[in-house]
Design goal:
The chain is an alpha/beta fold and 507 residues long. It contains 13 helices and 21 strands. The chain binds zinc ion.
Length: 507
């Protein structure tokens, strides 16, 4: 073995092809070389998991280049070429001295010219490494997996949870599989199956319901001879592209037939449950009305009612300035409530100019595009606090990672000024409740908490909540895959298309 047998790098983005504008090179935060273990060691992240496994297995790692950005519009070609170029150059530098590579990717990155940016990236990595150096790739559960990705990587290793609380474990799993492959103890081969099913976002929750059953089935299949890894990826449906969709890449040890059979069995299991991946969710007015009823019934003695503004989830590439749920809360006179977040840098600036302890009247939110509702006009509020918005996750998801909301204002408004709105400069998914504590609010003491999140909020908020209500709201990450207008996805696919029992499987 060489002195630094494992190379680690990454380039991750979830690209919403329905969002306007593009994601540019400066939207990415970059860590290079020794900054990577210094920043991520001990955190629940892929790099943190690679650190932990390397320490345990006494593997030296060449830490190279890691670029990540909040989900958003497709990358400009400039952004892709810049970061892919830096990463591939780093791999090339070490190509002769490493015995294996771990790459932290998302799997749903697209550019203004590429549907399958990871497939392209892995092709370039493979070109400089040659065919013999094994490459293990970690993927978000929301990857849209292509045949090119399967061919060009030796192992695809996806998160198994949604909320993604196993990100560190995924890094560990990938590093262990890579080490086994480097030692010659594993000959990985992968087969991909694609059930034509698009589960609604909130029903991809792996803690409960049909997705929990699917994940349990995947774990069962891993006890079959030679089957090592049954990945289950329900897809990121805000990508109007032929690679979008549910995928089941299964990795077996030198046994393609076993991989194919397990992939087919899992895909058929998903297909049989397709109807259970669709539900009617309440809209904002109905959801807030239910929350008020629960408060009136005394339910909040056990904790707040948590409402999820799923359509405007910045973790799915949205504007994070949607107003429909906030407007319903204000119109219905909800009290002792919190709302995270409204991204509105102009209002942050107005509040900062007014100062803490002052009252002002603003037009809040609804300014980025026409997909997230109108601004809440002439909203009078009290500036209770302004903080720097550097918030370290304390909940189960990506624990220890610091997230940058930008300057964050605690604006008290609504009835009795008892609705706390967190107004931020940046688009960041508020899945960790620490953002409330950051401005002096204890979220567990509120009666109603609304968060812009699809399902990740469950990790930190569900334990404190008396009830959790995902809402069907407008925005660029609608929970229902029937909402967007697709032109380029593979059809037919359920539930966009009516499909009968016999329409799948087709083997
Ligand atoms: Zn995800």
């Amino acid at each position: 073995m060489s002195e630094e047998p494992v190379l680690f790098g990454g380039f991750a983005h979830e690209s919403n092809t329905f969002a306007t504008d593009s994601t540019t090179r400066t939207d990415f935060s970059v860590h290079e070389g020794s900054e990577i273990p210094e920043t991520f060691r001990g955190t629940n992240s892929v790099a943190g998991g690679v650190c932990a496994t390397a320490d345990r297995e006494d593997l030296d790692v060449a830490w190279t280049y890691l670029a990540r950005a909040e989900p958003g519009p497709v990358l400009s070609s400039d952004a892709f070429e810049h970061h892919a170029g830096r990463l591939v150059a780093a791999v090339e530098t070490h190509a002769d001295s490493v015995d294996g590579v771990v790459l932290s990717l998302h799997g749903a990155m697209a550019t203004d010219t590429l549907d399958d940016a990871e497939g392209e990236l892995l092709g370039r990595v493979r070109d400089v490494l040659g065919p013999d150096v094994p490459v293990a790739v970690t993927l978000d559960l929301h990857a849209n997996v292509s045949e090119a990705m399967v061919e060009r990587a030796d192992a695809l290793v996806a998160y198994r949870t949604y909320p993604h609380v196993d990100v560190g474990e995924t890094g560990e799993r990938a590093t262990r599989l890579l080490a086994e492959t480097m030692r010659g103890d594993l000959d990985p081969t992968t087969r991909l199956e694609r059930p034509p099913v698009l589960p609604m976002g909130p029903l991809q929750n792996t803690r409960d319901g049909p997705m929990a059953e699917v994940m349990a089935r995947a774990r069962d299949l891993e006890s079959r001879p030679n089957v090592r890894l049954v990945n289950v990826l329900p897809g990121y449906h805000m990508a109007d592209s032929p690679v979008m969709g549910f995928s089941v890449p299964v990795l077996a040890d030198d046994d393609p037939a076993a991989a194919r059979e397990a992939a087919r069995d899992l895909a058929a299991f998903v297909w049989e449950r397709r109807e259970s991946f669709v539900a009617d969710l309440p809209g904002p007015e109905e959801g807030v009305r239910r929350a008020r009823e629960l408060v009136a019934e005394g339910a909040t003695a056990d904790g707040p009612v948590v409402l999820a503004d799923t359509g405007d989830n910045p973790g799915g590439g949205t504007a994070a300035d949607g107003t429909t749920v906030l407007r319903a809360m204000l119109d219905q006179g909800v009290t002792n409530a919190g709302f995270a977040i409204v991204r509105d840098p102009a209002v942050v600036a107005e509040c900062a100019a007014a100062g803490v302890g002052e009252r002002l009247t603003v037009d809040l939110g609804g300014k980025t595009d026409d997909a997230h509702g109108e601004p809440v006009r002439d909203l009078t509020g009290y500036v209770a606090a302004i903080a720097d918005g550097r918030v370290e996750n304390t909940g189960p998801m990506l624990t220890g990672i610091v997230r940058e909301f930008g300057r964050t204002v605690r604006l008290q408004c609504g009835r009795d000024e008892s609705v706390t709105v967190l107004v931020t400069e940046n688009r960041v998914q508020p899945y960790d409740a620490e953002v409330f504590r950051h401005v002096g609010v204890a979220p567990e003491r509120l009666d109603v908490v609304a968060v812009k999140s699809n399902n990740h909020y469950r990790a930190d908020y569900e334990p404190m909540a008396s009830h959790v209500l995902p809402l069907d709201t407008i925005g660029l990450r609608p929970p229902d895959p029937r909402t967007p207008t697709f032109e380029r996805v593979r059809r037919p696919v359920f539930p966009i298309d009516a499909m009968a029992d016999g329409d799948y499987p087709d083997w």
